[in-house]
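Course assignment 3, question 2. Fill in each field.
Student: A.L.
Task: Predict the tertiary structure for the chain below.
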Amino acid sequence: MGTEATSKSTSGCDGKKKYKTHVVLNVYDLTPLNNYMYWFGLGIFHSGIEVHGKEYGFGAHDFPASGVFEVEPKKCPGFVYRCSVPLGQINMHPSEFRTFIENLASEYHGDTYHLISKNCNHFTDDVSRRLTGKRVPGWVNRLARLGALCSCLLPESLQVTTVKQMPEYHECSEDEVAETLSTATPRESTEIDDQEKRLLAESEDVSFIKESQVKQN
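Answer field:
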């Protein structure tokens, strides 16, 4: 049983409400091989951060817009839930956290996703450090760090994005869509694995976070 990231509102001595909530890392398997690789401290994982009863992750699409998305905890479509890791507690109002995640979304555009240097686990590690001062366990993203030293460690069949779809809020013309389809290579259009097909089929369960338009100094 994992730790539930529930929120609790209480009043402090100064009369101000405290909004304590758990910060939880939810980890998923991207391949059945994890059942064997896990015992060697390796594995290919997706992870999301659960705060205030919602889970947030980072995935790829083809546009310079937020790749941060929201799903129900432990139910990210297309992956097999493995475990939850408690990262600590924070005292943050839900609206304050929403502002935080929208600001962060401007740093994680879908077209900047990279399996080795900027993946979903880099995102959750960044969120954890900013919220709690703690990093996620090293084994969650160890294969990416090894891959940075030797990219051939990761087979081409696993060089896929965790979430690849168009953000619902992105406004584009029919010409833009046609251009995107016409420039796709045969490999992009035909070699999508079963995992990604499941994600596309269940995309209604994924809601992208609209990034804040306020520029940070």
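Instructor remarks: The mean pLDDT is 76. The chain has one domain: 7-208.
Grade: pending
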